[in-house]
């Protein structure tokens, strides 16, 4: 009997060791937006292009971490790649507003100091994520919007571009389609209370966003999110990406989080901070907390996804859409990129 | 022994009933900003004026609740009084930006549905709190900023005023003083890393804000916050007031919360949602959670206060400044107004 008990204990120990040893330690996780992404609608060329740019973003972030720089440097480097790529709804490739403009939002947060920075409604800053970082590091503010944020970015010596830099034919065509669909939708929904609202959302729109969470050699977490917002948006609408606690949050005590999806639901659920709070106050794992909070969003009618990483390098990438552009890189440099369910 | 046990139980029951009966049930709590408010600096006339307007705001909210309308109606009514008063930094009486403009922010949240609305950087809407409510009720968005938010408010038939409506001599003089102090501060701090930051904050500035939380006869909570932001602010700075989860939050499961203070610290600590999360996940009381979260703000170097009320009508009004304009009204209409510690 005694031997049997010890043997059981021995087995439990062995399995525990195997589980711990076998568990990958990640240093970065990124996303390039969640939505109706189906393999049947994707050409091999387009798929390859997405995989290439997501891989490049992860490589950039990994190089930074490997060299001993901060997680914030890694987040900025990875997001630069996605902002500079026309494939993602952030920076070059941002969707158009109803007025035919590209109005971008971005935010960063440092898990060690709980410092944060964000910009909203900027139109001439090449890399909005760097503007968010500049707000955090070079001002005593957290959030700046519109022309004021742009004046600040100029003073902070960030790269300013002509708004035409952000033009891509695909997004312009997307706006024309959205305008047409919206007007059709308004006629069809005539008399429906919901459609009488100003700024009605066509659920089929893409709410693309890019984001990254990194963990550096000092054990510090950082998170960042950058977006062009919603196609055909009006009224200076701001989504969750630049809202600290909603679309972006980082705290060394819990996790770094970046969200993508139907922003209004993410704001109302204070998604990123809620995940952190569940981890801190309910002692939930990053995976369980992420799943639980995304379920709240889904229950309310919102869709999207998120990425999260805790200080041990455990990663969660849940989404309730058809797909989410996403990827990870481990401490030993192994990159994995995924698109579909 | 049996009798003794029953007797003990009887005593516990009696004391519980007494405690419940003796505990006041509040239906509304308001604040008019926290800061360096000292009795020695206050004239009897000014003090009387503040008390009169805070009382009027509470009366307005109470009448709405008494008549059976919603907590959101009560919050809007109370905040209208404070926005229309030149005494508070919201609506008429809003402080001036560096460029001599009045840029206002506001937010509301409905505890039953977790619906929310907010506006930031608006300059021509007489009552920004009503614009926030319109965003919540008449659009599918949560947050709108700048001219876009104003265009929406016009379409939603809100009262539009000339920007000169918001002028008050006291606030204009405050801006001139702030500009002078800032330039002196910059010279004095020359070489100090912190002062090299763009948009340096003079800690002596007032971060006035108004806010209200109400509980209606149906047991629903609502919260709202309205502010003119920070005197001499630049770069389109946005504080915590219009950020759902930071300065404003309501959830029937926990509490309604409205904050006032140094906004940057409230955003970084996601103050309003953190109080709610502590109540939900750690089963803390509204008083203990409010105190704990304000302590986090204080530890980080931020100052201010907040009001919070749970679904049972328990109220918390902590602040770590010299004073906070605040007041409560109970279910039986008893009004209490306080200013100092």
UniProtKB/TrEMBL annotation, chains A, B:
<feature type="binding site">
    <location>
        <begin position="237"/>
        <end position="240"/>
    </location>
    <ligand>
        <name>substrate</name>
    </ligand>
</feature>
<keyword id="KW-0068">Autocatalytic cleavage</keyword>
<dbReference type="GO" id="GO:0006508">
    <property type="term" value="P:proteolysis"/>
</dbReference>
<feature type="active site" description="Nucleophile">
    <location>
        <position position="209"/>
    </location>
</feature>
<feature type="binding site">
    <location>
        <begin position="260"/>
        <end position="263"/>
    </location>
    <ligand>
        <name>substrate</name>
    </ligand>
</feature>
<dbReference type="GO" id="GO:0008233">
    <property type="term" value="F:peptidase activity"/>
</dbReference>
<dbReference type="InterPro" id="IPR029055">
    <property type="entry name" value="Ntn_hydrolases_N"/>
</dbReference>
<dbReference type="InterPro" id="IPR000246">
    <property type="entry name" value="Peptidase_T2"/>
</dbReference>
<feature type="site" description="Cleavage; by autolysis">
    <location>
        <begin position="208"/>
        <end position="209"/>
    </location>
</feature>
<keyword id="KW-0378">Hydrolase</keyword>
<keyword id="KW-0645">Protease</keyword>
<protein>
    <recommendedName>
        <fullName>Isoaspartyl peptidase</fullName>
    </recommendedName>
</protein>
<dbReference type="Pfam" id="PF01112">
    <property type="entry name" value="Asparaginase_2"/>
</dbReference>
<dbReference type="GO" id="GO:0016811">
    <property type="term" value="F:hydrolase activity, acting on carbon-nitrogen (but not peptide) bonds, in linear amides"/>
</dbReference>
